[in-house]
């Protein structure tokens, strides 16, 4: 199914999931959240980079005015001591008016949606088993060349099974298996997007200890297969990556939420092009301020190096896990009953489809969030 058709089905499913719950179930439903979001943004981009999905433009800087609307929420359909079942949905529309390009003007439109389910079941005195899964879609019209980077349209389906053991001597252990399938939509002008189709399988184990504050250490492995990318080796023709990660996160949650983490990645492949090492530092801080204001700060800072320097490394666009540095600062406060306002500033430095070439994005946004069930 093409990304746009899949996305329309996904969005309709999300709306039906939110507002078409049978009457006999309404008494059992608990809304976790329902949020309507609207806002405007100004964004600036720079970096004259290679792109495999759009013709090049000599522009080295670009800007955009963006209007956006979003809907997200979650419902718990079953919740008792033994089991829990719930749904979450998140969808949004962003309309860009871009400037700074030489060849022609662009007006990209981005439509995204995601639908997730969650099921929890107790496993006797051992712990809890969690089953999670989701489908996501993205559609993009009039996608511009670099340096204004917008992820191309694609569909994904993913799932994971997690076992969380009850604490033993103050330490909680967990283990999980996960998988993902991704399909990127192609057109006559962009057939190379199929190079980014992938299948992922992985696992992770972790341990958490602490009470007022917690520390979680984890180690994981991810196997990725790109069925449309070759290695130029007739005996092993398709690209296959193996990624190992190791990290730790410290969390303090009281009137102030503070979190600091570090994670290292080692990616090895049967193709030398995408082999790299990366290290990410993560920080999250949420602080209440006088006059009902709140301040939220989030930062992922990443250093990455390739083992082999080449000009044709093909990446998954917007692969935030191990190659992007992202910083956000947001101040918000209630404006009226059920209505909040926020001002957000952001910075991103990341690779797009071509490896070891980076673009930067600076953004400022004014957002309004309406929660009817507050």
Overall description:
A hairpin with a 5-residue loop joins strand 12 and strand 13. A 16-stranded antiparallel β-barrel has the order 1-2-3-4-5-6-7-8-9-10-11-12-13-14-15-16. The chain is globular. With 374 residues, the chain is mainly beta. It has helices at 3-19, 23-26, 320-323, and strands spanning 30-46, 61-79, 83-99, 109-123, 127-141, 154-165, 171-184, 198-210, 213-230, 238-253, 257-269, 276-288, 294-306, 325-336, 339-351, 358-370. The chain has a single domain, classed as Porin (Beta Barrel), CATH 2.40.160.
Task: Compute the number of helices.
Answer: 3
Total of domains: 1
Sheet with the most strands: spatial strand order: 1-2-3-4-5-6-7-8-9-10-11-12-13-14-15-16
CATH topology annotation: Porin
Major sheet characteristics: 16 strands, antiparallel, barrel
Oligomeric form: single chain
First-to-last CA distance = 38 Å
**CA-atom Rg in angstroms:** 22 Å
| Uncertain spans | 317-321
Q: Give the ordered list of helices and strands.
A: HHEEEEEEEEEEEEEHEEE
Give the percentage of residues in beta strands: over 45%
CATH architecture descriptor: Beta Barrel
Which helices and strands appear, and what pairs or packs with what?
Blueprint: H1 3-19, H2 23-26, E1 30-46, E2 61-79, E3 83-99, E4 109-123, E5 127-141, E6 154-165, E7 171-184, E8 198-210, E9 213-230, E10 238-253, E11 257-269, E12 276-288, E13 294-306, H3 320-323, E14 325-336, E15 339-351, E16 358-370
Antiparallel strand pairs: 1-2, 1-16, 2-3, 3-4, 4-5, 5-6, 6-7, 7-8, 8-9, 9-10, 10-11, 11-12, 12-13, 13-14, 14-15, 15-16
């Amino acid at each position: 199914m093409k990304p746009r058709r899949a996305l329309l089905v996904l969005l309709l499913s999300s709306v039906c999931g939110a507002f078409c719950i049978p009457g006999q179930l309404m008494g059992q439903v608990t809304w976790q959240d329902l949020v309507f979001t609207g806002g405007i943004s100004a964004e600036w981009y720079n970096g004259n980079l290679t792109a495999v999905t759009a013709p090049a433009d000599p522009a080295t800087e670009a800007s955009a005015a963006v209007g956006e609307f979003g809907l997200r929420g979650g419902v718990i359909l079953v919740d008792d001591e033994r089991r829990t079942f719930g749904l979450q949905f998140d969808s949004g529309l962003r309309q860009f008016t871009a400037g700074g390009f030489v060849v022609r003007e662009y007006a990209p439109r981005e439509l995204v949606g995601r639908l997730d389910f969650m099921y929890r079941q107790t496993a006797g005195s051992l712990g809890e088993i969690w089953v999670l899964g989701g489908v996501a879609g993205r559609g993009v019209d009039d996608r511009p060349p670099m340096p204004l980077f917008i992820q191309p349209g694609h569909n994904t389906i993913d799932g994971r099974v997690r076992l969380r053991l009850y604490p033993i001597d103050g330490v909680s252990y967990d283990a999980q298996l996960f998988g993902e399938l991704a399909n990127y939509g192609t057109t006559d002008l962009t057939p190379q997007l199929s190079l980014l189709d992938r299948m992922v399988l992985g696992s992770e184990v972790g341990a958490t200890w602490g009470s007022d504050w917690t520390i979680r250490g984890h180690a994981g492995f991810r196997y990725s297969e790109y069925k449309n990318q070759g290695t130029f080796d007739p005996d092993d023709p398709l690209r296959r990556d193996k990624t190992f990660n190791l990290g730790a996160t410290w969390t303090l949650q009281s009137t102030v939420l503070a979190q600091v983490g570090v994670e290292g990645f080692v990616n090895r492949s049967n193709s030398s092009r995408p082999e790299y090492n990366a290290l990410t530092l993560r920080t999250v801080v949420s602080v209440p301020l006088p006059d009902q204001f709140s301040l939220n700060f989030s930062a992922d800072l990443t250093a990455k190096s390739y083992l082999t320097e080449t000009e044709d490394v093909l990446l998954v666009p917007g692969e935030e896990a191990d190659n992007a540095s992202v910083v956000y600062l947001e101040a918000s406060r209630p404006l009226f009953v059920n209505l909040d306002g926020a001002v957000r500033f952001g910075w991103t430095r990341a690779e797009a489809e071509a490896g070891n070439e980076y673009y930067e994005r600076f953004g400022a946004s004014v957002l309004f969030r309406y929660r009817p069930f507050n």
